[in-house]
Amino acid sequence: MTRTLIKNATIVSMDPHIGDIDGGDILIGGEKILEVGRDIDAGGADVIDARDHIVIPGLVNAHIHTWELPLRGIGANWVSSRDYHGNMHQNLATRYTARDVYCANLLGALNQIHHGATTIMDWCHILRDSEMADAAIEGLDESGIRAVFARGTVKPPLREGVTPYYKIPFPRGEIHRLRTGRLASDDGLVTLAMAILGPDWGEYEVAAHDIRLAREYGLLSSAHTYGRKGKRKVEDGMPRLAREGLLGPDHNIAHGNCFDEDELKIVLDAGCTITSTCFTEMLNYERPAMLGRMLKFGATPSLGSDCDPYFNGSMLWVTRHAFHHQRELDNRSLHAAGQWPASTQHSTHTRDTLYWATMGGAKALRLDRRIGSLTPDKQADLAMIDLTGMNVFLAMPGGDPAHAVVMYAEAADVDNVMVAGRFVKRGGKLTFPAERLARARDELMKARLRMMREGGYAYQPAPHGPQPERFVL
Q1: Which residue range is the domain that position 116 belongs to?
Q2: Are strands 251-255 and 273-276 parallel, antiparallel or unpaired?
Q3: Rounded to an integer, what distance in angstroms lies between the CA atom of residue 67 and that of residue 438?
Q4: Contact indicator for 289, 322 with CB cutoff of 8 Å
Q5: Single residue among 364, 388, 411 that ends a domain in this structure
Q6: DSSP-derived pairing of the beta strands 422-426 and 414-419
Q7: Which of 26, 282, 314, 347 could form a disulfide bond with 115, CB atoms 3.0-4.6 angstroms apart?
Q8: DSSP structure string for 235-296
């Protein structure tokens, strides 16, 4: 068994029994963490000197549509989820081939690793058939990331004489094929979940069927649930599901911004988890992200990046934004209650949001016994932040290492990333073969150009000289 000893690090373990350790060591054997402490004696181990590094658990991106990577840069000025669905699901998503999905998932997962994420929930709702599903899994598998592959279904344009997607139950045969085949085990790096419509996007019978199917196969189900009254397919869908015993810790809710207090209490009392994607929610929703409201009920938020067409999918950015967003809400509510200036104990801390991005995500994906903290016997999923670069320089020593990571670190400062005891980024560079990476990037760029043209976008020549052209609709 290969053993690696990380020595002299500033360790932010996210384990309350271990805490932070200044000048600490982590001993890794095979896929697992063997020991965390000081002055660990591990003769024969490969030693990594981490005296100028903060080591954190790998970040967990609990909600990302990895397939959207090739359509970056086109969505910043969309003003509603209607614009998103019109441009993506009703148009550009229909242009994808299985090969496009493979390349997008491969490069999308590598980009997550580059930014310090070791685990993602790939909420893959572009899949028309088994070939596309297999291609998506292949891309994740080749990247080396830990992924919960949430097998979803498409939302094609509505056509007369064709059954609309919101009336179609999840295909049992496809779940059976994956669960008894390639993704039969829950112990691999890539495991299976179901990305379902839920009662906001599908009819009630469809939502109930899909949750029962997930439970039959022992799978986590996840649904986009905005809770926006008057826009739901089923107005009382979540309370009905709860009454019938169909909600539980095996159901994850993405967003949920517009739940009223009674609805929020119902889903949290049932044990459901909620993942906030603050960036997209601030662009498109009229209510704040589901962070502080969950905390009031004693629940733990998780975080995700969601949609690459809007912005960089970095979990470092997401975690930082979650802190800023919730701190602003804290300040407003405390001021309204006459408790201003705010006191430290009543405000969100950077360490809170780092917890949401590590253990929070692990809990949402039902992986908290395996990942989310630097704890002996857990998988060795971690990121090492270099403190010598200009971004993080002078944030330590003497500062809070969690604060240094959340508020200062960028991808350039993520020096090493390890998944299941194997380096997937080393010395600031991905360990994925450079030639293969270059070929995949070229292939995906060609796919982007093809899909954009097919979708009615065209290049507009730059007005002056040999400047880059840009797409316009």
Answers
A1: 59-364
A2: parallel
A3: 18
A4: yes
A5: 364
A6: antiparallel
A7: 314
A8: TTHHHHHHHTT--STTEEEEE-TT--HHHHHHHHHTT-EEEE-HHHHHHH-SS--SSHHHHH
Q: What is the pLDDT of residues 153-203, one digit of tens each?
A: 999 888 999 999 999 999 999 999 999 999 999 999 999 999 999 999 999
Query: Exposure of 116 by Cβ count < 10 A (0-12 exposed, 13-18 middle, 19+ buried)?
Result: buried
Q: At what angle do helices 204-216 and 172-179 cross, to 10 degrees?
A: 20
Q: How confident is the model at residue 469 (pLDDT cuts 50, 70, 90)?
A: very low
- Does residue 240 sit in the same domain as residue 383? no
CATH of residue 120's domain is 3.20.20.140
pLDDT single digits (tens) 67-108: 999 999 888 788 777 788 888 999 999 999 999 999 999 999
Decide if 457 is inside a domain: no
Residue 187: half-sphere exposure toward Cβ, Cα within 13 Å: 2
Same domain, 294 and 397: no
Do 333 and 315 have their domain in common?
yes
pLDDT tens per residue, range 408-465:
999 999 999 999 999 999 999 999 999 999 999 999 999 999 999 999 886 555 555 5
Structural domains in the chain (count): 2
Do 129 and 221 share a domain, yes or no? yes
